[in-house]
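[step 3/7] inverse_fold.run input=structure_tokens len=414
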């Protein structure tokens, strides 16, 4: 009788110990998971909603004082949902002290329409009259103004860029006389950080209010960086239209005293067509017995500056056409930060007809861009109807099959 009793007591103690151990393991996993930092390089804040609120500290809504916030709250419909998580600290509490905001001298020319913190007497009636009396020719030459803010978080070693809005953009759609603008931003010269805003439909005065936070940038390196804003208009059926660009060298800009509000005029993009589009070394071989075309993309040299940094990330896209219809496509690997790329990549295409009379091949040299559509640096077409070296190269491979023939070709505008 005593043995079953002892066995039952030990079984009960074992069951209690197992349950306690299981609960302790679950609690440890939960706590370690909650403390784990999410793997990302920057945090994107859209319209005041922070997708990672635990990693931003004491963020205040851009350019809003108590009066403007009260006015916005009263004008906000009841059905809308507004999450102002930027004001909270790491513990989820609201800080008592407001961050110091430093104003830029460039903001003296702004009207109260742009920023809520502007006083009514900051713009004189004469200046308003001069603004409204602009001629139609001056308005056509202007590409608009970009408003943004810069800030550095010393505690987290984070560089914060807020793209507020753009005003007075030109209409890129002639039918609707409007645009679908968005902004692509790159931190130069390394081009490691490439981000872009969302597309706003049918507006010439887009209010983005999007914040990008870049971690791991020491404050000592800020002076060596340059911000490049590219303003574009989305086009569903073709390449996006480039409205203009804004280049902001950070040398001499002091961010130690708080957030800096800035505005810059949008200028035309420097396409640099006069410097040439570069050259491409191609080797071709036509195998008449197997009816295949071997294409070797060897090198590219003297590629133009695709952006203000002067550093391209080129790759080559190869398209095979039969009677003006694309039947096959290939592409090389991307070569980082070089105007003189060495590819040495071979592609074999099956020819669907006898001979190369109706065959042509197109080479597109593009700049790889993670943030948006890749830009075409230059174009080359080889075929029986091609002019210049493209036609001569094609004629030689037709006259000398099974022979690998390589030639340099000048690239034309994409």
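[step 3/7] decode complete -> sequence:
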């Amino acid at each position: 009788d005593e043995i079953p009793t002892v066995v039952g007591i030990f079984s009960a103690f074992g069951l209690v110990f197992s349950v306690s151990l299981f609960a302790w393991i679950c609690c440890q996993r939960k706590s370690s998971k909650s403390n784990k930092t999410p793997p990302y390089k920057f945090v994107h804040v859209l319209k005041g909603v922070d997708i990672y609120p635990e990693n931003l500290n004491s963020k205040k809504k851009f350019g809003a004082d108590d009066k403007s916030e009260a006015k916005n709250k009263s004008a906000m419909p009841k059905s809308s949902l507004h999450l102002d998580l930027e004001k909270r600290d790491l513990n989820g509490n609201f800080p008592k002290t407001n961050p110091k905001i430093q104003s830029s001298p460039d903001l003296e020319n702004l009207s109260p329409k742009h920023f809520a913190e502007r006083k009514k007497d900051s713009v004189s009636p004469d200046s308003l009259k001069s603004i409204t009396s602009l001629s139609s020719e001056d308005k056509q030459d202007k590409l608009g103004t970009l408003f943004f803010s810069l800030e550095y978080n010393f505690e987290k070693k984070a560089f914060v860029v807020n793209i507020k809005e753009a005003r007075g953009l030109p209409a890129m759609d002639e039918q609707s006389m409007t645009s679908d603008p968005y902004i692509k931003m790159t931190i130069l010269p390394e081009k490691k950080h490439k981000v872009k805003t969302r597309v706003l439909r049918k507006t010439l005065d887009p209010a983005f209010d999007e914040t990008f936070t870049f971690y791991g940038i020491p404050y000592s390196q800020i002076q060596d960086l340059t911000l490049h804003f590219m303003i574009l208009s989305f086009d569903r059926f073709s390449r996006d239209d480039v409205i203009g660009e804004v280049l902001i060298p950070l040398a001499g800009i002091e961010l130690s005293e708080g957030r800096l509000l800035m505005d810059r005029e949008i200028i035309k993009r420097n396409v640099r067509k006069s410097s040439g589009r570069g050259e491409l070394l191609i080797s071709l071989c036509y195998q008449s017995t197997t009816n295949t075309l071997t294409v070797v993309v060897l090198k590219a040299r003297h590629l133009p500056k695709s952006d203000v940094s002067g550093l391209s990330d080129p790759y080559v896209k190869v398209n095979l056409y039969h009677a003006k219809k694309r039947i096959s496509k290939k592409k090389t690997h991307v070569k980082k930060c070089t105007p003189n790329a060495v590819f040495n990549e071979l592609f074999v295409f099956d020819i669907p007809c006898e001979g190369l009379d109706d065959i042509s091949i197109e080479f597109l040299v593009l700049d790889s861009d993670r943030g948006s559509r890749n830009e075409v640096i230059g174009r080359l077409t080889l075929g029986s109807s091609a002019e210049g070296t493209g036609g001569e190269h094609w004629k030689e491979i037709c006259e000398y099959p099974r022979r690998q023939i390589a030639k340099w070709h000048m690239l034309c505008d994409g």
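[step 4/7] annotate
The CA atoms of residues 157 and 216 lie 6 Å apart.
The chain has five helices and 19 strands.
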